[in-house]
Amino acid sequence: MQDLQILWVSRSDIAPGAGVKSHTHPYYHMFYVQAGSFRFSAAGKSYDLLPGQTLLVPPQTEHGYQNETAEHGGYLEIKFTLSNTRQLGSEVLRTDDPLVASLFSQIIQEYSDLGKLADDAAATYLGALLSALTKEARYQKQPQQFHHVDASDSSPLSQQIIHYLEAHYSEDISLDDLARALGYNKSYLCIAFKKDTRQTILDCLNMIRIRSAAALIVYSDHSLSQVAELCGFSTVSHFNRVFLKYAGITPGHCRRAYPPDILFGYSDHARNLSKHSERFIYNVLAQRRVTPELISSTKENKE
Length: 303
Known about the structure:
- The protein is built from 12 helices and 9 strands.
- By secondary structure, the protein is of the alpha+beta class.
- A hairpin with a 2-residue loop joins strand 4 (about 40) and strand 5 (about 45-50).
- Helix 4 (about 155-170) crosses helix 7 (about 200-220), helix 7 (about 200-220) crosses helix 9 (about 235-245) and helix 9 (about 235-245) packs across helix 12.
């Protein structure tokens, strides 16, 4: 990483009650506690760090720390510069993510074994470490992500519902479960969702399940009964009925049309699909999220 430069790495032992007075410097300073309990002061706040926890202090941020245990404490530290400071922001970051700990230790070990020859590899490890460290902050800034349903134009409440359905479609979930999870009356959820999306919550759940099932049928060698179970269907017969309703073909027809070795050949069964079924399966294979219009077309196709 050309914009990242490691300045210092070390492993330190601190006597009971000892520490470092509050100070500032023009580079990032990161600590990983291995033993003891440290109280850090940074940007006017206090942070208590235990073994396994990491703290990242931005440049020009006043900070200091002290070992608050009656035993020797130990920590790893890295000092580095980053040309694009917007990647990390100006907040003090703390985490107990084990991936961060593992990468931190790897960087220290690289320099212990190779000295300056470790610069390039260590910078790569540090880049991955910083990505892990800032994961939560990045996710909070990003809009809700949806895998199966296009919810970009839906209300915030409908997006919450769809997010819950996408996270739990493989389980035996009910409207009562959904209502408890979101803290709403189930009747209100049903009315609000139908008004906003022009589909019922059950239609949306079934479409998520069938879309997932179609992908498994095409891209895996799971049996149809295994696919049914993985996608939240209690019986194969129920799976068959719902799949036919939404996809326009049976699961068996879908497998014959698009066998698991699809990348190496094209089945004659695929040429016999209806335009609706072909469109549905195409959307699955292209990893396109379904829209309310597609859900409506599936129902009209069968009714």
